[in-house]
Each structure stands twice: as structure tokens, then as C-alpha cells.
Write a structure and sequence with these properties.
Blueprint lengths: L2 H6 L9 E8 L2 E10 L5 H12 L3 E2 L2 E2 L7 E5 L3 E4 L32 E4 L11 E4 L12 E7 L1 H8 L15 E8 L6 H10 L12 E10 L2 E10 L9 H5 L4 E7 L3 H18 L4 E7 L11 H10 L3 E4 L8 H31 L3 E5 L10 E4 H12 L14 H7 L12 E6 L20 H11 L6 H13 L15 E4 L5
Parallel strand pairs: 10-12, 10-13, 13-14, 14-15
Antiparallel strand pairs: 1-2, 2-9, 3-4, 5-6, 6-8, 7-8, 7-9, 11-12, 16-18, 17-19
Helix pairs in contact: 9-11, 11-12
């Protein structure tokens, strides 16, 4: 029996369609929500939702729907609301029938968790937004049209429901630095218990095993700096080990947890470390944690052995007890400090490298004989960028010599060079800030004409101008048809200047 057949047995009507959402948080999958649409009761509303799920509805030939949209409103023990693929904040409205369409009927009720219902701004204002209930919500009956229910994936709904939230006023404007931490370890070592203790200061003696992964977030202040710690709790069961790289890819830190009473769980830590080193190339901060120190009398992993191993792989070693709430907060405080310090080191290294490579460097373009003064066009990167933006907005650019010499120079760069003879100019020297006696001549070759497309695209986006690639490419091709000689592509960067010269074949 196929998965669809299993779901079909649960349908309230055999002809009702089934749709699904593949959900992700922070770029990592968290599960699938499979839903039945009550087309037998509210066919118009169900069809609106179905087409937004499948991408069948198109506007100007482009599929329009829920793909890559988000749940913008989450209220614990109430509902999760999404579907605003227009603005993403609950203000957008659209439907396959127009901007909005009327309420169809209120036959179905909000009787349990997992009910799929239309969000609206009053009577007869249905659009693309919807919500999934997390509890019985009979007070919404006769106000919102129920058009479906969750067949499978209510656990995924619960994961979304329990994500920490903030006000919509802060959405997209937060300046907090977000750091990703992943919890790794064998099953039953206490990863979820540690996270529950840290987030809610609770301990559950009968905690269920994690399926795939769960996600939680918390703001904390470390050394006067407020950060947002995004914590991924991964499943420890063997069948989920292959999913590990999906969740710890892009992590700045990893907490590797083992049970001090279980030698096998400690040995498994070594495998996790090797995988992290292969995938993250040593970029993540590591903390090895021995859990369940409240069972000291049953210890099977010597603390000194574990500490020595942690030091050998460049990790910090800590021990804790989620049950007795011993040093749980210390784990996350320490990993946050390590990640912040690592980020500072990377920033300093990058800035230092950038200063060394661009320190007062210029490019000089010369010819066998000096051209007449003030007949070239010497332009810095920012000036070239502004010229490109000016040209892209369709504004005319008069040439300094009263006539158009070269469409490429005139339209893209906004400057032209008066032709002198048949010679082509070339870059022959790179001038640096080194003392005169230490300078060395360095040959610089022509840049080909073909990358002009990529260069133009980059500079247009720098000025906030976005066009389809084929539009930019068509324009560049038009310019290249009348281009003669070779163009030296300008160098972009602070303190860099270039003289552009044009020659004839």
C-alpha cells in the first residue's frame, strides 16, 4: 500500500484532494504537513488553496503560490498563520478569483487541533492567507471558513508552534547577531532534556525521542553583547544519522553530548567530531559535554580521559546534569563566547588581508607617446558605478566632445575617448604604495569583452537596479555590435583609478 493509499483511507470524502507542505527552518527541513481539502463542502475555497499549493495559478506566466512563503504569525496553544506570499507580514491579499472572494459556508467547525481555516479581515474577505489550529477554537466558528484538516504532520505543526516569537514591529529590523548551534549525540544521552532545561527550566522523566530535529531560539547577553542563539536538537537514533549534515551545515558551534554512564555514547562523539571537521572544515566551535553527573556512582567514562580527548580536538570540556539543573546554562554561555570570539578573529583577519591587498593601489594606463592632456577619461569605481546607474535609468549622456563616439562608452560608462591613431592602448604598469626603490613593474593583460555582462549586472545591483538577465544581456550585445578595439575593464575599489582607452582594429 502506497503512502497516498494510507492517507486516502482517512479522507472524509474519497474525491477530496490531498496537498502537502515541506517545511524548513533556518534552511534545514523540519518535516512535512499533509492536508485534506474539503472540496465536497467548500469546493471554491479548497480549489483556491490547492492551486496556490501546486503552482497551477499563474500571473503573467509566472507561478504564484505558497512555495517559499512563511508562517508569519504563531500563537502558542492557538494557531499558526501563513500564506501571505505577497508581503510576508499578514497584509497581503490575493486569490485565484481576484483580490478576495466571499465566505462559502460555515458547515465545518474548529473542533480540534490541525483544522485548516481561512484567515480574513472581516466577512467575505478571503484571499491567500490561512491558519492551522493548535487547539479547539470553537469561538472562531461562523467567522472563518474551515476548508481542510491535517492528515499527517501535526508534530511539524507543533514544532512551528513552539518556536520563540517576537512582535511584528521587530520583524526584519533586528540587529541581533544570530548564531547557529547544533546539539549532537547518541539517542537517550539527554540532548532534548538539556535543551528543555535551558529553555524552560523543566525536566521530563518520560521525554519522547526527537524525530529528525527540533528547533528553538533564545536571546542572551554575553560580555555586553546581545545575540540570538538558534539551537538545533538533532535526533540521535541510528536511522537519522544520515540527516546530520543537513542540520549542522552552516553552524558556528556544536555541542557534542554523551552519557557518562555509557561508553558507547562517548565513542560515538569521536565519529561526530570527524564528520564536523570534514563538513565544516574546522570553522565551528566545539564543546564536549558529559551529561548525567547525578549518576556519578555509575560512571563508566573517566572525566580525565574525556577532557584529554576534548583538548586534542580543540574543544572545551564540560559536565552537567539536566535532571538536577547543574551547569546547563554554562554550556550555552560558553559556546556563545567561543562563537563570538571566533567571529571577531575572522573579521579582523579579513580586514587585515583586505587592507594589505588594496593599500593605496592604482592602475596607470600609458602608451608609447603621451596623449594630449585632459583627453582621457580617468574614473574611479564609484564614479563608474554612478554612470552605469544613470545610463540604466534611460537618461541621456551628452559626450564632452559634442558627438557620440562609441555607444558602449557613452551608454554604459558615460564618457568617451577621442580617437588619436590606430594603436590600441594597454595597461603596462601597476603602481603601489611601496617605497620607490621597492617598486616592481607588473604586466597586466587585457580583460576580455565578454565579462562586461557580468560586470554591468553587478554594478546595476550595487545601485539597487534589478533587471532580468536577458534584458541586460540583450543590451550588452547591442553595444558590442558597434564596439571597436578592446576595452580595459575598470578596477573597482577604494583608492583605485583607471584610464580607459579605445583603439581601432
Amino acid at each position: 500500500m502506497t503512502d497516498y493509499d494510507k492517507l486516502a483511507e482517512k479522507l472524509r470524502h474519497p474525491d477530496n484532494p490531498i496537498v502537502f507542505f515541506e517545511m524548513a527552518a533556518g534552511g534545514a527541513p523540519i518535516g512535512t504537513i499533509k492536508m485534506e481539502l474539503f472540496a465536497d463542502v467548500v469546493p471554491k475555497t479548497a480549489e483556491n488553496f490547492r492551486q496556490f499549493c501546486t503552482g497551477e495559478f499563474r500571473r503573467d506566466g509566472v507561478p504564484v503560490g505558497y512555495k517559499n512563503s512563511q508562517f508569519h504569525r504563531v500563537v502558542k496553544d492557538f494557531m499558526i498563520q501563513g500564506g501571505d506570499f505577497i508581503n510576508g507580514d499578514g497584509t497581503g491579499m490575493s486569490s485565484i478569483y481576484g483580490t478576495k472572494f466571499p465566505d462559502e459556508n460555515f458547515v465545518m467547525k474548529h473542533t480540534e487541533p490541525g483544522i485548516l481555516s481561512m484567515a480574513n479581515a472581516g466577512p467575505d474577505t478571503n484571499g491567500c492567507q490561512f491558519f492551522i489550529t493548535c487547539a479547539k477554537c470553537d469561538f472562531l466558528d461562523n467567522k472563518h471558513v474551515v476548508f481542510g484538516r491535517v492528515l499527517d504532520g501535526l508534530l511539524t505543526v507543533r514544532k512551528i508552534e513552539n518556536v520563540p516569537t517576537g512582535t511584528m514591529d521587530d520583524a526584519g529590523t533586528s540587529e541581533l547577531e544570530a548564531l547557529k548551534v547544533v546539539l549532537l549525540g547518541e539517542g537517550a544521552v539527554g540532548k532534548s532534556s538539556i535543551l528543555l532545561r535551558y529553555m524552560e527550566n523543566k525536566f521530563n522523566h518520560k521525554h519522547l525521542s526527537t524525530t529528525q530535529a527540533s528547533f528553538m531560539s533564545r536571546k542572551l547577553t554575553v560580555d555586553g553583547k546581545t545575540i540570538e542563539l538558534n539551537i538545533w536538537d538533532t535526533a540521535g537514533q541510528e536511522k537519522y544519522h544520515s540527516l546530520g549534515p543537513i542540520y549542522y551545515r552552516g553552524s558556528q558551534g556544536a555541542v557534542l553530548i554523551y552519557d557518562i554512564t555509557d561508553t558507547r555514547s562517548f565513542e560515538r562523539i569521536k565519529n561526530w567530531v570527524r564528520e564536523l571537521q570534514e563538513v565544516l572544515k574546522g570553522s565551528a566551535c566545539l564543546v564536549v559535554v558529559g551529561n548525567k553527573v547525578d549518576l556519578e556512582e555509575s560512571r563508566n567514562v573517566d572525566m580525565e580521559v574525556a577532557k584529554e580527548y576534548a583538548e586534542s580536538v580543540g574543544a572545551l570540556y564540560l559536565e552537567c546534569s539536566a535532571k538536577e539543573n547543574m551547569d546547563v546554562n554554562t554550556i550555552f554561555d560558553e559556546i556563545a563566547k567561543l562563537m563570538i570570539n571566533r567571529a571577531k578573529e575572522i573579521t579582523i583577519t579579513r580586514n587585515s588581508s583586505l587592507r594589505r591587498s588594496t593599500s593605496r593601489r592604482t592602475i596607470q594606463v600609458v602608451d608609447d607617446e603621451q596623449p594630449p592632456p585632459k583627453k582621457g577619461c580617468s574614473m574611479s569605481g564609484p564614479r563608474i558605478a554612478s554612470r552605469i546607474a544613470h545610463a540604466a535609468r534611460g537618461l541621456s549622456q551628452p559626450t564632452p566632445y559634442g558627438k557620440r563616439m562609441d555607444r558602449l562608452s557613452n551608454r554604459i560608462f558615460g564618457e568617451v575617448v577621442r580617437p588619436t591613431d590606430a594603436r590600441s592602448y594597454k595597461v603596462v604598469r601597476v603602481m603601489s604604495a611601496e617605497p620607490l626603490e621597492q617598486r616592481e613593474d607588473k604586466s597586466v593583460k587585457y580583460f576580455p569583452n565578454l565579462p562586461m555582462f557580468h560586470y554591468l549586472t553587478k554594478m546595476l545591483r550595487f545601485h539597487g537596479l534589478f533587471f532580468d538577465d536577458h534584458v541586460i544581456w540583450r543590451r550588452v550585445q547591442d553595444e558590442l555590435k558597434v564596439l571597436r578595439g578592446k576595452v580595459v575593464r575598470p578596477v573597482i575599489g577604494q583608492g583605485k583609478r583607471a584610464q580607459l582607452r579605445r583603439g581601432k582594429k
